[in-house]
Amino acid sequence: MFFLSLLVVCGNAAHLAVNPGPEIVLFPAGKVPGERPGVFPPNEYTHHGSISNVTVPTLTPYLVPNATTAVVINPGGAYKWLSWDLEGTPVAAWLNSIGVSAFILKYRVPSRSWLPFGGAPIMDAQRALGVIRQNASQFGLNASTLKLGMIGFSAGSHLSAHLSTDFNVRAYPRIDAADDLSCRPDFTMLCYPWCVVGDNAQSDQSCNADTNHTMTLNVQSTTPSMFIVQAEDDPVHVDNALLLYLALKHAGAPASELHVYPVGGHGFGLCHRDEEVCSWPQRATEYMVANKFIAPPANTSHQGGSQK
Question: 96 is in which domain, residue-wise?
Fold first, then answer.
């Protein structure tokens, strides 16, 4: 279905207290595919809540006891950095508040010039879903009934859409049994997506014009259901949301939702402003409930705050 969202829901869900579990290294030491040792400094660089110089991709778990659903979080940052404090930990807190376990993916940034556009992040995302499914019981999850979704923001939305349209074949040679498991998300949520429809629909020259990973060309009936939210005044162009939704509809993919808000710009995260766009976390919760990805949350007081 297509939804043009007009409700105003703002609040402070991100301020819930959550405690991360131990960081999970995705690849065995010395076996990170596509890496060239020494090109990037060995130490990650953190500045104003963002992380860069990532050479060892990891997952940071935020687990809810008895959860039946988990979501991998892909922060944005133009494939140059990861907006951890805006689109990572607050999103994990929100997901935990509605009974969903969360895993923040620390994928490799900045871009590797010797790899295709998004080449290292797609390897990391594929590996992440296999590792979670392989070790589900250790995270308090039932592998046979687990619903494993993904949410991305900006460049993280590009990564999420990339994985959702390119999951049949691993982008790297098999390492172990985790790579034998599916890396298809059961559902995908995209917030202010970036670079998913190709350069011809947007002016952002940071998108690689040589890439063939225009998501609208790869959408099939097996592409997972998507929840897409973007503002009409987003400088990276609302075409990303509109054309991707149309591609999903035309391909006969599972029922998806598109929420277009008139104002909101780019990078609003969980959104603590008195604007219409701030209703998106509540809309996303309703989408997950309607599609039976999650049960109706027992406590709805932190799904975006008060409604006006």
Answer: 2-307
Whole-angstrom distance, CA of residue 269 vs CA of residue 249: 26
Nearby residues of 250 by Cβ (< 8 Å), 6 or more positions away: 219
Instruction: Give the pLDDT of residue 13.
Output: 42
How many structural domains are present in the chain? 1
- Indicate the DSSP class of residue 40: S
Q: SS3 for 298?
A: coil
Kindly state the tokens that stand for 213.
Answer: 């990973």
Maximal CA-CA distance, the chain: 53
Give pTM, 2 decimals: 0.89
C-alpha closest to that of 203 among 229, 245, 239: 239
| Backbone angle region of 109, left / alpha / beta, with phi > 0 → left and psi within -120 to 50 → alpha | beta
Kindly report the CATH number assigned to the domain that includes residue 268: 3.40.50.1820
Residue type, 196: V
* Residues in Cβ contact with 16 at an 8 Å cutoff, skipping those fewer than 6 apart: 93, 94, 96, 97, 302
Helix (H, G, I), strand (E, B) or coil at 102: strand
DSSP secondary structure letter of residue 207: S
For 63-83, the pLDDT digits (tens) are 999 999 999 999 999 999 999
The candidate with the shortest Cα–Cα distance to 1, out of 308, 293, 227, is 227
Return d(Cα 131, Cα 26) in angstroms, integer.
Answer: 7
